[in-house]
Amino acid sequence: MAEVKGFAKAEPEASGEAPHADRHGLLEHSREFLDFFWDIAKPQQETRLEATEKLLEYLRTRPTGSEMKYALKRLITGLGVGREAARPCYSLALAQLLQSFENISLCSILKQIEEKYDLQKVKKAMMRPALFANLFGVLALFQSGRLVKDQEALMKSVKLLKILTHHYNHLQGQPLKAIVDILSEVPETMFEEILPKVLTGDLKVVLSSPKHLELFLLAQRRVPAKLESLMGSVDLFSDENIPSLVNVLKMAATSVKKEHRLPDVALDLLRLALKEDKFPLFWKEVVEQGMLKKPCWASSYLCFRLLGASLPLLSEDQLRLVMRGDLIRHFGEHVVVAKPQNLFKFIPEMSKYVGTFLEGCRDDPERQFAMLVAFSSITNQGLPVMPTFWRVTRFLNAEALQRYVSWLRDMFLQPDLDSLVDFSTTNQKKAQDASFNVPERAAFRLRKWIVHRLVSLVDHLHLEMDEALVEQVARFCLFHAFFKTKKATPQIPETKQLFSFPLDNRTREVIISTFFSLLQTLSAKFRQTDQAKGWRPWTYRLVQFADILLNHNRNVAIVTPFTKQQRQAWDEMLKTLKELEACSSETKATAFQHLLLLVGLHLFKSPTESCDLLGDIQTCIKKSMEQKPRRSRSKANTSQEPPWVEVMVEILLSLLAQPSHLIRQVARNVFGHICSHLTPHALQLILAVLNPETNDEDENVVVTDDSSEKQLKHAEDEGSDSEDSKNSVSDMDSEDEEESEEEDRDEDVDPGFRQQLMAVLQSGKALGGEDSEDEEELGDEAMMALDENLASLFAEQKLRIQAQREEKNKLRKEKTLRRDFQIRVLDLIEVLVTKQPENPLVLELLEPLLSIIQRSMRSSSSTKQEQDLLHKTARIFMQHLCRARHYCHKVEPCTDALHTQVERLVQQAGTQANASVALYYFNASLYLLRVLKGNTSKKYQDSQKPQGAGTKPEPVDSEAQAANCLDLNFVTRVYSAALESFLTKRNSPLTIPMFLGLFSRYPMICKSLLPVLVPYVASPSRPRHQAQACLLLQKTLSAKELRVCFEDPEWEQLIGQVLDKVTQILHNLGEAQSKAEHQKELSSLELLNTLFKTVNHEKLTVDLTALLGVLQGQQQKLQQNLQQGNHSSGSSRLHDLYWQAMKMLGVQRPRSEKKDAKDAPNVTQSPISTKQKKKGFLPETKKRKRKSKDVTPEQDVMPENATLAVTGGDQPPSTGKKRRRKMKAQAQAQVNGTPATKSLASNNLTLSPTTPAETPKLQKKKEKLSQVNGTTPVSPIEPEGKKQHQKALPIKEVLNKSPKSALPRKKARLSLVSRSPSLLQSGARKRKVVRKKEQTP
């Protein structure tokens, strides 16, 4: 803000003119009004706009007051602030202000700006802020929209901008740009008047900068006659002006380098060239030979953007000139060499330009077709640079799309390499390999791109498109992938297609791969449309077309001829398809039909393997269809399912070994229909794949598939663009090779190689003697022999290391492929668990899935395949298996085995090294408990729902427990051992949430385990285990499900036992020396508070005398620890829990000494002296007003050990509103003659634990006494029969009126409900209403 100080001299003059009343009014402006101007300068756009809107709303209510003058002055001052980011903010706010209030004169605002920032009087150091203030001031006038209507202000503004143009070092070309923007909106008459003042007649000045040229082109477009009279006839595209135009365009390109946009002057020049019919001259001389002569990327991007913007403006001949010139080759080279990390890629921006062009000429298919062909013809040694998935084709109409597909097909059959705009990069030119320049290589690269382009067109087609185009592409791919023409025939149009370059094996492999990806697209995208219209699937149509081609053996020949067995398998497949059509209404038949069609088409790709699969599939289909009518009758006689299911599972596993997404979907669909017939042996076939230790056959299948992929990859061209997946595989391979090199480098030298090396060296030394002095006597022949021996030895070692490295890479790749195969096989497990959750075979999946999870989490490998396998297995296990709504109900034959499995799972959970793995094992045991319990648990819970919390629970039905298969005693012993291990083992993987899940689902097991858990609260074990026992017991006793399992006497006895245990460990409260001991104290107090809530809520009668004495004995110790700062991180929490427990016993927490010294004033002082000293300014609306003014300072003094009335033990300290209500109630009580606090003989208001409970007669007597005094007593707990319509502040009742009436201490049964305020009253209101309804007859 140092720049603002320079303008301080102008402020007294402007402010001195204002009356004294206005200056006094400015001082009374609200803080809100002044904050508007701070928010306007903030960098956040939303904050600025919001502040501007609020300022305008504020000024509309006071349009003539002092606020308007102050706002204008403040905004004008902000135009020249030192922060550059704040100047445009103030300028925009001033523009909106002038737009909203049209009565403000623009000339007066301009005058104030010129006076405040006078360029003649300003100091040199403040010149830059002054220049920007004048510039932003004029821009504010222009943005208000009123400048073009006010001629006087317009002329003055243009004059000021003309002066600012001389300060180019500070403002660059911004003033001239503002002049161009203003003149583009003024009327022509005013333009003609202003033009001579802003534009000189010198053409050199016009061609000196982009802004001058832009002003000239604006005048040329709007007032050509006036411009000609001023400058004469001007030819910008003459030979002497072209170098100047190139320099201007390069300057314009540099100025917008960071903005990524096209300069306006370039597009204006293009329009002028088109208008004067000089476009070829402009494009050749200025763009291609000028801008691209020594190209920089800024100039190249300007040319690219100019190309995209010019497309809608050009004719067909001009488009042909542009799309076959040097610029389009330069664009193609940029697409090839540009990398995202180091160079801006222009393809997305060019796609927008082309999309805009195609969308604008939807009615002209000729222009659309010409544009797509032009961009598809930009090739790098035969390979088009545009991506195959270019999405601009969505703007094509049907005719243009059909013509484009025909052009692609013709270019595939007869590649016209001369019609392509081909180029080579700099590196390719340096290589000069003769094999790269042959036409066959260019034709292969072009055909490969065309095939992928055709498939992407089908993928991007809309569903409402004509299916003739899709069928044309599919037939084309199928024919040229597997067939060839012998003689043309009109019945098959594909036979008339002749090749100029014959198809080689590499091209056919690409077509085959693309054809099956096309099948995936057709199956996924057009499935719903085919079903809605009743069409047959595309695979069925293609099988029919293939059968037609096989029958025309005179005209068409298959590339790989079928044997008799393979042709017979094809014919049998067609018969089976016809049989399945008869029962096509069944989903099972549809799934088998899809499988047959897919394997039938694979017969052309791999005849030998597919022939065997077809025979097995047909056999399985026939047996499954024949078995269905008599399945119910033969089910009782046969103990096993027919073997066709196992054969089908093997077929599906072999299909899943292929990396095809379509096969994966079909396998899932088929398995979903046959999983109901699954046998144990068939399931073991699937599980054997997931456990590679037991079966290696599937691994070999995957590895073989990898070798085929590798051959296909090597068959493709090295310079072509590969798929993303192949790139990732190659990157992974390179990384693995680097890692293996590092490992080999770090490994120790092979001892065998060391011995061989020593032997060679010793043999060399033996030739010259044993002494070191004789080494020099070795001759040349001996040295040469030694060198040869060493060279051969190291060469052998190098080959050995290379072989080891290749073996490691092979094993690593096999492991990766094995994991991918296992991930695909998990699809079958997911289908089985989802569609057949009640199948008994699902129970056999628990331990195999757990072993996969355990092995994956123990594995040190962190590859993507390992993570995907782990995540998918865990998702299937938890979501689809353990949390499934349905489960197996027929487990009577295997009840003993399931109980043994439960014990084994719990034991394995306790022996895991990782708690996450132990959680999976524990959840598996809970799932088995659910299966064993069956439906009895649900019926039992439904029968318990009507019972409330306070009603007497019914005893557990022993017959219901005996009805299920769960052996409660056995299971209790199992989990009792696990609980003891958890509470005694030093590092147990078991956790508290595991047992809480067990207790919440099975309360009867929890009831049986409580006798095991309660003794550990006060057992002489580790403090950490005691804390865990307290925490587990606290969460367990709060559960609703557990209370139903206990009778009232049992429950009361249990609470008493837990209270006794807690009382034992509270003897050492405050003596913690370690973190574990401190956590034990916190957990014990939390458990104690939970017990108090339970006792109060259920009105239990327990003896709290010993507990109260123990707690009171620890008060001084806790206070000392708090003051000394021991365990400062949790001492305050411990203190709060302690006083929360004391509060429930009726003992209120005393005020601390600091609070007493701060809040309680001295009695000898006057009330005025107790007020706080004013600090700073505080508005009247923010000052706190005391409502009880009659309370004297003496009344505020709290007696020592006094207690306050409370509303509930679980509620937080009272806020200001409640405190004021409390003070008001105390003051009213004193007015009526009732003291706010009552004292005992010992001046201690804590309740005696031996005080008997109030009788109804005594309560009634006290009510009458209080009504006489004018107050209404409120009991701690309202009777259940009454409904509280208003929440009153409960006042603690004290029976001891005087010291004489104090009763001696003795042991008695104390009801916590009658001695303390209501606990959980608000939280248990719903349950009380339920109990009231049940008790009401």
Automatic annotation (TrEMBL):
Residues 1-21, 698-750, 1149-1337 are annotated as: Disordered. It is found in: Nucleus. Residues 1-12, 707-717, 1150-1159 have a biased composition (Basic and acidic residues). This is MYB binding protein (P160) 1a. One of its GO terms (biological process) is positive regulation of transcription by RNA polymerase III. Pfam families: DNA_pol_phi (PF04931). Residues 1231-1253 have a biased composition (Polar residues). Residues 1310-1322 have a biased composition (Low complexity). Residues 1171-1188 have a biased composition (Basic residues). Belongs to the MYBBP1A family. It comes from the Eukaryota. GO terms for cellular component: B-WICH complex; cytoplasm; NLS-dependent protein nuclear import complex. Residues 732-750 have a biased composition (Acidic residues). Keywords: Nucleus. The gene is Mybbp1a. It comes from Nannospalax galili (Northern Israeli blind subterranean mole rat). GO terms for molecular function: E-box binding; RNA binding; transcription corepressor activity.
